Amino acid sequence: MKTRILFLSMALLTFVAYGQELSTIKLPAPDKSGGMPLMKALSERRSSRSFAAGELKPQDLSTLLWAANGINREDGKRTAPSAIDKRDVDIYALLPAGAYVYDPKAHALNPVAKGDFRNAAANGQDFAATAPVVLLLVSDLTRFTATPNEGTKLTGALDVGIVSQNISLACASLGLGTVPRGTMNQAELRKALQLKDTQYLGLNHPVGNLR
Q1: CATH topology of domain 2-209
Q2: 183-187 own/partner pairs: CB under 8 Å, 24+ apart
Q3: Whole-prediction pTM value?
């Protein structure tokens, strides 16, 4: 039984053996009662640019994604508010095996592209590529209007910022390290993730265990 649990834990983050196709990762239920109190998390929040070796625990990744922009009410509304409740921000998880997008309804990671795209997110800042996961925040501006403009982009950027703060506070509460970053190779990420021009690449968060 212990061997099976260890295998499943490792498989959640690396997920597939070499040469196999990516599949959906069903996350464990988030821990909604753990972590530290909000005021303590605020006092502990800081930017971390180095990470300890080792993967994130599946439970921590699950709780972090839910805290970032998961469903917290029966009507489908989220932990992060959004303009006109359009829920425009998608979270892409860049893992060693590939890129996934978080599905709040299923609380799962759906495959997007095979390959390690953490270096594209790091874009020369090597510490970011050493994190076991990079969370990429993307606002789909067409959820506001069919013809986005600069005002729409600003609204999407504000919503990205709200989700980013959720990630920072959740990491502090869970004892994880992260830093919000605007630096990334947008052209490479857009191509790899097949993003449209109307999908605004906002921020990214490398996340790892604290040293």
Answers
A1: NADH Oxidase (3.40.109)
A2: 183/122, 183/123, 183/124, 183/125, 183/128, 184/120, 184/121, 184/122, 184/123, 184/136, 185/120, 185/121, 185/123
A3: 0.89
